Amino acid sequence: MNLNTATKWLFFAVVVFLLFAVVGEPIYLNRAHAQSADDVATRRAKLENDLNILESQIEAQQEIVESKQKQAVSLERDISIIDASIKKANLSIKARDIAIQQLTNNISSKQKIIGVLSEKLDRELESLAQLIRKIDQIDNISFSELIIGNETISDVFADIDRFRTIEDALNKSRVVVAQNKITTEEEKKTLEDKKTEEVELRAIQALEKQRIEQDKKAKAKILAETKGKEAEYQKILKARQKDAAAIRSELFVLQGSKAISFEKAYEYALTAQNKTGIRPAFLLGVITEETNLGENLGSGNWLVDMHPTRDRPVFVRITSELGLNPDTMPVSKKPWYGWGGAMGPAQFIPSTWILYKDKIAVLTGHNPPNPWDPYDAFMAAAILLKDNGGAGGNYSKERLAALRYLAGWTNANKKAYAFYGDDVMAIAAKYQKQIDILQNN
Q1: How far, in Å, are 75, 293, 299, 393, 425 from residue 342 at the CA level?
Q2: Range of the domain at 160
């Protein structure tokens, strides 16, 4: 085969390749995108409808709990609260399952598209490499060899024009390949974000399952002891009711610090109320929930679990001012919703603590304040809860302030975090009963 024939075949092969790579595959990809989008939209619509129904049912059970809590203590009232709490938690788990399924479907859809794009990218890169090698081979042929291999001089210039056309087309194809690479990377980043959300939901689901088991045991124990009789229930309540002395001496467990007596915790909470307007029982509920989460996550290491640029340098500054060794001070592990490194009973991260440092110092008289000191920690939590809108004792305001304490203002209204606000308010109701006994003695 002479050079004229070879170049014509090469030109034909390149044109066919480019038509398939630049025109044909986008058509296929568009069809794949459209089909995938239709399937996902159908599944998503059904899942979102199911999720909306479940969330309405969850709200109904929450309303039952709140209304029953306002009633006088009775067997029927307390069993109704437990039943509603169990139903609400079960519904929440179903809602989380649907949310996880939504994420899984989205991840699967994105993965298919990423697979198509990756295969196309690999094929184009390989084809481009082969074409470039062939063009390099022709470039190395001398002008005299080209003349000998062609019938006329015009054929030589025609071949040169073809190669220029091929070169332009190859450059355009390279742009397409580069764009496909960017698209693939963006899809992978989205996929990673969705996986993070799935881990978050699964962790929350595990905590809700623990709550269900506790509620079921509580219900079974009440029914076993009373056999469904109100009089027996009231006798048990009276027998179990702690006196003021027992309440005062009861230990109040703290995260990252030694336990203190309930009397001391209440004293700190009262002082914080006088300074910030935060209800003592609510403050104690937040501190307790933070301790519960800390115990669930375990202790962390500031060099591993703390944000490297936002918090670690500040943590070193805080411990240095207090004359403490950063390596020996307890901090939280990374939770499912972000970085760890939270300090002391109030579980402030260093970058937040430093923002409130001066306010805490003014209200406690401790300068610098110590995040592991219970008094400083209680005041810090109260200041933040006040800033979050929790002052005044209103149930809804307190619950929202607690959610903001956990997840910030942006995530506070996400239903996935509702368990935290519900737990805080349930704990606060328990502490309010103990405080009422103290105030009457």
Answers
A1: 40, 11, 10, 26, 22
A2: 3-226
